[in-house]
Structure formats: structure tokens, C-alpha cells
Design a protein that fits this description.
The chain is α/β, with parallel strands linked by helices. Helix content is about 40%, strand content about 15%. The strands form 3 sheets. Strands 1-11-8-7-5-6 form a 6-stranded parallel β-sheet. Helix 7 links the parallel strand 5 and strand 6. The chain is globular and about 50 Å long. The structure holds NADPH dihydro-nicotinamide-adenine-dinucleotide phosphate. NADPH dihydro-nicotinamide-adenine-dinucleotide phosphate binds next to helix 10.
Length: about 280
């Protein structure tokens, strides 16, 4: 294996320690409300991991586990209550919501100052113009991982595969803010492998196991694998075919242990930022 492994676990632990130390040093009182509707097992795991991270950092977590039959009105009412609650600095509604609920309307109801996922339209708009308080956790975590390599983004060819509102698009924007030359690919992209091979920094956010193969990667590139895919055997795997791509790339994130833990660490950081804004 030639690539350096980017250790998301270690880097996320360092971010959480910084957050913990900051809260203790400045004697901050910080609270995060996590709302989960229904009993999706993957969502349950994410919510538990977020609770654990809160405990570690000294953030009080308030969990609202609602039944799958919860109505839109009930959910919006809870969001209103949390918006008004001074003990709650950040509100996170775990996605996806059950199909009968309108995710967009729920996100728009969260006070932008408490929107620690940075999914609210006003926060998305602020990211576009580079005047933001919160960055969406997964792309922000990816940027930390890229920074950890020491590779400068400025002037580099950056390719993002995926254009979702929560990962691909904001990721592209953050790379652009750091002066990368950014290409965003999607399911209609022609000759994807050719485009990817240009990348000094390649970010895969596709949601397809082992999608990125060695022939799509420029030797020495930084490869960030956002994908979390569960295989039939129950194992987790990323969007990048790790064994062969790690022979070509310069740096690569593993799955698990790469982007996933960073997402939670950045959520902790956003929650402290929210608490400071509200004070
Ligand atoms: P979406 O399904 O919303 O988006 C997937 C994107 O991949 C779309 O833009 C789609 O293109 C593109 N795509 C699909 N097939 C192809 C193809 N054959 N060629 C090129 N592009 C393709 O997923 P998300 O962005 O929400 O998530 C992506 C992955 O990241 C998932 O595995 C998810 O589990 C994971 N994830 C991980 C997180 C973490 O903390 N590590 C957090 C969030 C997500 P088009 O738009 O044309 O349909």
C-alpha cells in the first residue's frame, strides 16, 4: 500500500478535545437537542454516537425519540418549543424522516441560529456567499481531513462526485472558497473516470459501494470517501474501492474511521458556535 491513511478517528478525537477544553475553559453551558422520528436502525446508531460525543465534550444532550406515526404538526410544534428553549443551543432533526413528513418544512422551521446541521435555506445561502456561522458537518469534516494532509487546496484540481444538498454541493463550495478548481460530477456526467483522473483532490459522495476504482484516480491524489454503504454481509464499506485505490492515491480515508467520525466532531463544534452566537 502506498497511500497515507488519513486517520479520521484521531483527527475527530482532537477536535472533540478542543471543544471539550473550550467549554470547560470558558465555563460555557451548551445544549443540543436531537430529534429522531421512527426506529430506523442506522439513524439510531447515529443518534447514540452523537449523544456519546456530547457527553465527552460536556454538552448537555436532549433526546426526543418520537414514534413513526408522529404528524407534521406535532413535529413542527416540538421544533417551535426547542426554538424557544434557552437551554437548547442546537437542534438536529435526524434525517431521513418517515415518508409522510415534509423534511424541507421541518428544516425551515428550525431557527437558523440553532441550525447546527446548516441545512436551513438561510444558512445554505450564507455558505454560498462565504459569510457563514455554521458549515454543514460532513463537508466541514472533509475539509479538516484534507487540511491534515498538508496539501494546499488553492489552485488544485478538485473533483466532487455527487451533488446532494447535504454533501456534494456544499463540499464543492468549500473547496471553491479555498481556491480549488472545482468540478462537480453526477449521474449524467460523461466519461466520469476521465474527469476523476484529473483530480488532485477527489471526494466521493455517491452512495455506491466500491464505485471509485484505481483507474479513476490520479497517482498521489488525496481521496476522501464520504460513502457509508452497508453490504449484504453487514459490513460497512465506502464509495471507494479501498484496496486498489490505496495503491495509487497519496492519501486516502478509510471507511469506517474516516469521514464518519469527523461529521460528529464538527457537529460538536457547531453547537458551541451556536451557544456563543445566542449569548
Ligand atoms: P444522495 O443519494 O443524495 O446523492 C448521491 C449523488 O451521487 C447524486 O448527486 C447522484 O447523481 C450521484 N450519483 C449516483 N450514481 C452516480 C453515478 N453512477 N455516477 C456519478 N454520480 C452518481 O447521497 P448523499 O449525498 O446524501 O450521500 C452520499 C453518500 O455519503 C451515502 O453513502 C451516504 O450514506 C454518505 N454520507 C455519509 C456521511 C458521513 O457522515 N460520512 C454523511 C452523509 C452522507 P444525481 O444527482 O445525478 O442523481
Amino acid at each position: 500500500m502506498s497511500a497515507n491513511i488519513i486517520d479520521g478517528k484521531a483527527i475527530s478525537a482532537a477536535v472533540k478535545e478542543q471543544v471539550r477544553d473550550e467549554i470547560a475553559r470558558d465555563k460555557l453551558t451548551v445544549g443540543l437537542a436531537v430529534v429522531i422520528v421512527g426506529d430506523d436502525p442506522a439513524s439510531r446508531v447515529y443518534v447514540n454516537n452523537k449523544k456519546k460525543a456530547c457527553e465527552f465534550c460536556g454538552i448537555k444532550s436532549y433526546e426526543y425519540a418520537l414514534p413513526a406515526e408522529t404528524t407534521q404538526e406535532e413535529l413542527l410544534e416540538l421544533v417551535d418549543t426547542l426554538n424557544a428553549d434557552k437551554n437548547v443551543n442546537g437542534i438536529l432533526v435526524q434525517l431521513p424522516l418517515p415518508k409522510h413528513l415534509d423534511e424541507k418544512a421541518v428544516i425551515e422551521r428550525i431557527s437558523p441560529n440553532k441550525d447546527v446541521d446548516a441545512f436551513h435555506e438561510s444558512n445554505v445561502g450564507r455558505i454560498m456567499i462565504g459569510n457563514y456561522s455554521f458549515l454543514p458537518c460532513t463537508p466541514a469534516g472533509c475539509m479538516e481531513l484534507i487540511h491534515s494532509t498538508g496539501v494546499e487546496v488553492a489552485g488544485k484540481e478538485c473533483v466532487v462526485i455527487g451533488r446532494s444538498n447535504i454533501v456534494g454541493k456544499p463540499m464543492a463550495m468549500l473547496l471553491l472558497h479555498e481556491n480549488g478548481t472545482v468540478t462537480v460530477c453526477h449521474s449524467k456526467t460523461h466519461d466520469l473516470a476521465e474527469v476523476c483522473r484529473r483530480a488532485d483532490i477527489l471526494v466521493a459522495a455517491v452512495g455506491r459501494p466500491n464505485f471509485v476504482t484505481a483507474d479513476m484516480v490520479k497517482p498521489g491524489a488525496v481521496v476522501i470517501d464520504v460513502g457509508i454503504n452497508r453490504l449484504d454481509n453487514g459490513k460497512l464499506c465506502g464509495d471507494v474501492k479501498f484496496d486498489e485505490v490505496s495503491e495509487v492515491a497519496g492519501w486516502i480515508t478509510p471507511v469506517p474511521g474516516g469521514v464518519g467520525p469527523m461529521t460528529i466532531a464538527m457537529l460538536m463544534r457547531n453547537t458551541v458556535t451556536a451557544a456563543r452566537i445566542q449569548k
